[in-house]
Structures are given as C-alpha cells and as structure tokens.
C-alpha cells in the first residue's frame, strides 16, 4: 500500500533555528544571497557503536521542500520581531524578498533504506546561499532522527535473527511527530508492524495489538477475561499471561485455546511482559506443546533492545515474536545521530567553484571539500568499499586508492574494472522540481533488507564490528590536504 499525501498539509519554513534567518538576512544585505553554493549533510560516527547506519527520512525531506514557501502568516510573525533598540529585525524589503522566494535548489541524496557510513554525504544541496542555509535545520532534524531509529530497528531485527519484531513505543515516544516518524523509520529498519494506528493510516504500516493488564484486572478472574476476549476476537487471540501468575496464566490461555479449537478457531499465542523471560518462555513452551499447541507463538516484551534479545537468544529462550517499544522509538542508548550540514564549495563570479574546508583541532571535524559523490563497489553481491570522489575527476578503472578521511595511514586499493558499482547520491530535485519517483514504504523496507544482506556479517556485529572501508579518492584527499595546510599556514598547530 502506498500512501500519497503531504505529511503535514502545510509548509514548515519556520521550523528552523533563528540564526538561519539572520544569516539569510545578512546574505541578502551583503548581496551574496543568490551566490550558488554546495552543502553536504553527513554524520561522523555510526550510532550505537555499530558498524553501519541505515538512511531514512528522505520522504519527509521531499515533502518539506515541495511545500517550501514563506506564507503571509510567516512574514507577519517575522515582521513584528524587534531588536533591542526597538527597530525591526528584518527590513520590509527583505520580507518581500522572502515572500517571492521560490525553491530552486538541486538536491541529490541516498535513497531511504540505503546502508551508509561516516563522512559520506547523505544529502547534497546545491543552490542559492540563502535557500541552502534555510534548508539546513529542517533537513538535519528529519534525517538525524529517522536515520537513528531505522538503524536501531535494524540492529534489533538482526538480534532477532529473522523472527518478527513488533514496534509499540507510541506511549513512550518523544511527542506526536516523534512517535509517527519513529514508527515509519522502525518499519524501514525491519519491524513487521506497529501499535500506532495513525502511523498505520498515514504510511500503510500493518498495525498489531491485543490487550493490556487492565483488561484482565477488570474481570473477576483471568480465565473469564481470556474467554471474553476470545468471544470478541476469536481470530486474534494472543493472551497476556503475566498479570498474576505467569505459568497459571499460560494454563488459563490453554483452556480458552481448547474452547476456541472446538469452535474451529485457533489461539495465536501468548505474551509475557515481565519476569525472567528465558525461564518463563521455556516453561510456557513445554505447557503449550504438551497441551497440543506447538504452533502457538510466544511473544516477549518488557524493555527489550538488541542486547537483551541477543542475551535471551544465547539462553535459548523459547520466544517467537519480539515486542519492542521504549528503547527503540527513543533510541534509548544514543539519543541523537549527530549529523551535520557543511558548506563544501561556493561559486565565484567567473563561474568557477571554490572548494571550502572547515578546520578543527579535531581531525574528525574537518569536512570534505568540493563537489563530491559516493560510489559503492560490490563483488558477488557483497559491498566491499565506498569511495568518496570529486565528480569532475576521472576515476581510473585500472586502479584507485581510497584513503580513510580520519587516518591517512589507512588505505585500500580498488580495481573498479573488477567490481560492480553504484553511485549513491541520486537526483531528487533539479532547479526546485521533483525528478525522483518516490518508492512505497514497502519498497523502501525491501531495499533496506537487501542493503543489509549485502554487508558482510562482521560489519553487522552488535559489539566490536569490523570497520567497513570508506575512503577519499586520491584527488579528493590531496585537495583536502592542500586546503587544510593553506588554512593553517599561520598556525603551527601547537596551541
């Protein structure tokens, strides 16, 4: 199912940091507003101390850019802003400029569901400085969160080893949009369904859920509660068995399951939400099997994440389905991805591009200059390396060396002629016009699965993963070093 609707039904042009607007005003005031520039959105470290990241959020970015427009109400708000001396922050002529501003940028991006790595751009924006600057905060807000949650979901699904993972974190999510975008990203990352009904409506994600402890407690007995639920939903019976005594709850579920079977229906399974999940799942499996319910599923919940699931797997817990909420939708152990948006080139009056580099005492924070892209090389269906390269430089098919952007001693020689390759940044907007065919969410989820399958298992280890090779092509490495040394010519680096 493909949902074709604007996600917000209005523009979000003021969903930005105030300094983006003050910079836009200063660009306009200095005559630089229409100067063409290139910005790249990227991150510096894989989240969760992992070996990969899963890109998500592009659909929201497209929606935002399609609706990028300063409306009268936006300008009315900006018009009343005052400086400390009581003067307007923004001149009326600038506000008129904003009113007539139309989105005209080129945007290239990796497709949602693509496995990505540090330093390589996820989104590249080319256009007038003012527009590029005004896009920054919203793009980071969207990509940072959804990419983080999709990655967390992928890790949890890897730990589950192919067994279904249900996302039900709505009540613990960071607000309404946090819940909706988390449900969407979690589905991309491999979850099979969500408890979030609105996410089901908006995105076409399958919804799932049965009953809570309050349902059991509202009846005189647990058995009575199970029977009443079975009467209401004879085809959807997953009984929550740990309200009082877990193993007795399993026995009551079996009694109702037998009644269902006599009516031609079948109990789907049970859910355990507390206690020693390894112990109780094993005991429950024995009871279910002995009673003639070998196909009944055992669903586990209770603050699960990839590490707890891995531990339960190592204990040979008899769990078939995993319900994950808080630690998924909040990215509990790492609340932010930390993606950044940096200027990498600016166009001069003579039409040439001047590459730009930002310095830092931390080599990790020195950006990659120029107009660059990313190629992924495959051998027999497996990804072997990513190369960040300048688009205006030819790549020698006979051999190229890629150099780790954070450690120039780490190098890898590639023979492009012997690999299959994919250029990762795809055209999304050209001169402000959408040129990309938006895939369905199911197609994005399928891409994510294929991308993860293309990674060697050593890169997908939850603890101490093997480092996937990502490097700068030699020309780009040389350009970066030249710019860094030029910028540092008055600094001996000894401060």
Secondary structure topology:
Blueprint: H1 18-30, E1 36-42, E2 53-54, H2 58-66, H3 72-79, H4 92-99, E3 106-109, E4 115-116, E5 123-128, H5 129-160, E6 165-167, H6 175-188, E7 193-194, H7 197-203, H8 213-217, H9 222-232, E8 238-240, H10 246-262, E9 269-272, H11 277-290, E10 297-300, H12 306-314, E11 321-324, H13 326-329, E12 340-347, E13 353-355, E14 372-379, E15 382-390, E16 400-403, E17 411-414, E18 420-423, E19 426-430, E20 433-434, H14 441-454, E21 470-473, H15 474-487
GO molecular function, one term: nicotinamide phosphoribosyltransferase activity
Catalytic activity: 5-phospho-alpha-D-ribose 1-diphosphate + nicotinate + ATP + H2O = nicotinate beta-D-ribonucleotide + ADP + phosphate + diphosphate
Domain Nicotinate phosphoribosyltransferase C-terminal: 373-480
Tags for this entry?
TIM Barrel, 15 helices, 495 residues, 6-stranded parallel beta sheet, alpha/beta, nicotinate phosphoribosyltransferase, 19% strand, disordered N terminus
Explain this structure.
This is Nicotinate phosphoribosyltransferase. One of its GO terms (biological process) is NAD+ biosynthetic process via the salvage pathway. By secondary structure, the protein is of the alpha/beta class. It folds into two domains: 286 residues, nicotinate phosphoribosyltransferase, CATH 3.20.140; 174 residues, Aldolase class I (TIM Barrel, Alpha-Beta Barrel), CATH 3.20.20.70. Helix content is 36%, strand content 19%. It is built from 15 helices and 21 strands. The strands form four sheets. It has a seven-stranded antiparallel beta sheet, covered by helices on one side. A six-stranded parallel beta sheet has the order 7-6-11-10-9-8. A six-stranded mixed beta sheet has the order 17-16-21-15-14-18. Helix 12 links the parallel strand 10 and strand 11. Helix 5 crosses helix 6. The longest helix is centred in the N-terminal third of the chain and has 32 residues. The protein is globular and about 85 Å long.
């Amino acid at each position: 199912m493909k949902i074709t609707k604007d996600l917000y039904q209005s523009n979000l042009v003021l969903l930005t940091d105030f300094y983006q607007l003050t910079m836009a005003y200063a660009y306009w005031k200095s005559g630089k507003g229409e100067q063409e520039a290139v910005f790249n959105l990227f991150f510096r470290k894989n989240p969760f101390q992992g070996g990969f990241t899963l890109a998500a959020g592009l659909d929201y970015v497209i929606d935002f850019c399609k609706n990028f427009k300063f409306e009268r109400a936006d300008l009315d708000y900006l018009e009343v802003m005052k400086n400390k001396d009581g003067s307007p922050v923004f001149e009326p002529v600038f506000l008129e400029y904003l009113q007539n501003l139309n989105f005209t940028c080129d945007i290239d991006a990796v497709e949602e569901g693509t496995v990505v790595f540090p330093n390589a751009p996820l989104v590249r924006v080319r256009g007038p400085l003012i527009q590029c600057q005004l896009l920054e905060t919203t793009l980071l807000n969207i990509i940072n969160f959804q990419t983080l949650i999709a990655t967390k979901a992928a890790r949890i699904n890897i730990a589950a080893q192919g067994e279904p993972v249900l996302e039900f974190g709505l009540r613990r999510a960071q607000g309404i949009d946090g819940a909706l975008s988390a449900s969407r990203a979690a589905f991309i990352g491999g979850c099979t369904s969500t408890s979030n009904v609105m996410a089901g409506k908006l995105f076409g994600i399958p919804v799932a859920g049965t009953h809570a402890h309050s349902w059991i407690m509202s009846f005189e007995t647990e058995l009575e509660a199970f029977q009443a639920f079975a009467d209401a939903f004879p085809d959807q019976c997953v009984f929550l068995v740990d309200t009082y005594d877990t193993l007795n709850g399993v026995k009551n579920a079996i009694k109702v399951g037998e009644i269902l079977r006599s009516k031609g229906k079948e109990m789907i399974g049970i859910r355990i939400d507390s206690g020693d999940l390894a112990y109780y799942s094993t005991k429950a499996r024995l009871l279910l099997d002995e009673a003639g319910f070998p196909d009944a599923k055992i669903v586990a919940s209770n603050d699960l994440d990839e590490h707890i699931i891995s531990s339960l797997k190592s204990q040979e817990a008899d769990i078939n389905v995993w319900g994950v909420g808080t630690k998924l939708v909040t990215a509990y152990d790492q609340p932010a991805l930390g993606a950044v948006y940096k200027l990498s080139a600016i166009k001069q009056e003579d039409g040439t591009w001047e590459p730009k580099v930002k310095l830092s005492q931390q080599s990790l924070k020195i950006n990659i200059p120029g107009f660059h892209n990313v190629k992924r090389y495959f051998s027999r269906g497996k990804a072997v390396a990513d190369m960040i390269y300048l688009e205006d430089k030819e790549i020698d098919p006979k051999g190229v060396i890629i150099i780790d952007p954070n450690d120039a001693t780490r190098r890898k020689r590639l023979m492009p002629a012997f690999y299959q390759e994919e250029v990762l940044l795809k055209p999304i907007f050209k001169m402000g016009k959408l040129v990309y065919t938006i895939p369905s969410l199911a197609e994005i989820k399928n891409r994510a699965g294929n991308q993860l399958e293309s990674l060697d298992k050593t890169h997908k280890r939850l603890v101490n993963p093997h480092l996937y090779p990502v490097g700068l092509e030699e020309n780009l490495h040389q350009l970066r070093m030249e710019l860094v040394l030029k910028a540092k010519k008055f600094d001996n680096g000894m401060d």
